[in-house]
Amino acid sequence: MRLVATTSVEAETILAKAIYNEKGQILLNEGIMLKDVMIQRLQDLGISYIFIKEEGTEDIEYKGTLSDPMRREAIQTISATFQEIQNDPQLTSSFVVERASKRFSELIRYLLSEIKGKSELLNLLSEAYTYDNYIFTHSLNVTLYALAIGMELKLTSKELEILGLGALFHDIGKLKVPLDILLKPERLTDNEFESIKQHAEEGFQILRKVHTIPLLVAHCAYQHHERINGTGYPRGLQGSDIHYFGKIIAVADVFDAVTSNRVYRRAMLPSEGVEILYAGSGTLFDQKVVEAFRFAVAIYPVGVSVVLNDGRKGIVSGQNTGLGDRPRIRIMEHNGERGIPYEIDLKQDLNVVIIGCDTTSK
């Protein structure tokens, strides 16, 4: 299989991986031959990339960190929990949030057991999905990224559970933001953006009143938009004034935000998202956290076409643990000519580096 942009897919291409919505309903089944109307529908839904079948890649199989059913079950748990909280008109009932925290704590332990039980890099490009309930998917993804970073930084099991709870709850304040603002496809007005920014303060106020939740969880919601040079919000904190967990969730939050489908822009590739983190490393984001992210997460997902510094082109066929930017590659083309495919391992070929990705359909 190969990963391609929906904007370049041609009719009669065969879909290699099913596409779901967030309720677990199949939109398009694996093996279907795409028609122009289907491709246009995918683009209208905001789905940026899909996996297709292509000669020479039949045995390349993408495997996400979570299985599709497991991922959907986790999102449904988050969705049901947040909706229960939202049904409290003022979002002031500590009992409702306390009950939610117990459910989330169980989910975090479950997710940790899944991540720890696998040696592969964290890889969340497991299924194409629509953005109807973006906050739920985003909360799950940010939690998984944060836990992967925390494990790379050798946090204790107790610290990981608190970090995971902070990540799951980091956007709870958005439940007070009107949906027409959250899902607005056009540019936000200054007043609308100020309304969005209030979610960090709102989240802190909701969580700090729940005595069974560590106060640090509330500060995760409060600080995940702070930046180490003081340019973040809501308080403009700098450097060591920001808790380490806040710095971790900030990196996870930004990466998932730019690599996910949104109503107002297309998703970036993981490699493009990492470039944003690198650009802000040491100024916006903690450098150690960014480095931990690089070691823990698959920057070039299996199935993506890459261009190498020596002119060869290939498809990522596998990952190397702890080396997110040094995957295994199946070479498909050299000097503009296709030949017999063969494998190289960037873990061994240290003089070869990836200089770009190609998601056009061939």
UniProtKB/TrEMBL annotation:
HD-GYP domain location:
113-309
Q: Name one Pfam family in it.
A: HD_5
Question: What SUPFAM superfamilies would the database entry show?
Answer: HD-domain/PDEase-like
Q: Check the record and name the CDD domains matching this protein.
A: HDc
* Limits of the HD domain: 135-258
Q: Which SMART domains match?
A: HDc (SM00471)
Write down what this protein is called: HD-GYP domain-containing protein
Question: Can you name the source organism?
Answer: Cytobacillus depressus
